[in-house]
Structure formats: C-alpha cells, structure tokens
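USER: Write out one fold?

ASSISTANT:
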Amino acid sequence: MHASDVKPIKRLPGVNGTLELYPDHVCLKWSRLQRLFHFGEKPLSVANRDITGVEMFVGQNALTNEFMRLSIRRGKKRSLIVIFQRRHHNTAMQVRDMLDDLVTNRDVLPVVRALQDEARK
C-alpha cells in the first residue's frame, strides 16, 4: 500500500485549512487563500512523536471562531494553529483527545482501530 492510499483517521475542516490525523502523523492542508498567503506552500506534515502538546481555545461569543494549537518539538515551526468554525467543535474535541492520548503516551491503538473500522462502514 502506498502512502497516498492511506486515508486519514479523522479530518477537521478549518478556516485556514484541513487538519488530517493519520496513525503516524498529522497533516495540515492549507486552504486556497492560505496557499496564496504562504506562496503556494505544500501541506505541512508533522510526525505524531514530534507533537508535545495540544490546546483548544473556545470563542467568547457566537461571532468568533475556535482554534486548536499543536506544540511541535522539531522543525522551523514551533506551533501549528488550526482555526475552525463552531459547528466543527465535536470533531475538534475528538481530534484533540486522540492527539492528547498520543502526547501523554497512552495506548490509543484500540481507538485508532475502532475509528478505522467505523470509516470502513
């Protein structure tokens, strides 16, 4: 199986791009506007082992978006921010919990397998 054949476990659509969670890495695919802003930058991929923290920030009112910040151990970027709309809050919570489990070194293999089985249905 090629790397391009692997489907994300979870996908979080955001304002600045789409965050995709894979078994071994996280990928942020920039939105069209962000690609222009970043001069056509390719999707940003970070190995799960390089993520050291996950924080969620909830908007103070109905007009503000929420966002998630991933702290990264290596590379030129030290944090990755994904801005998402309130309607994607539940998906963001699931992604945050899964990444938090990875960061705290708990066994998430049963969770990953359950989500993969769910995606196949």
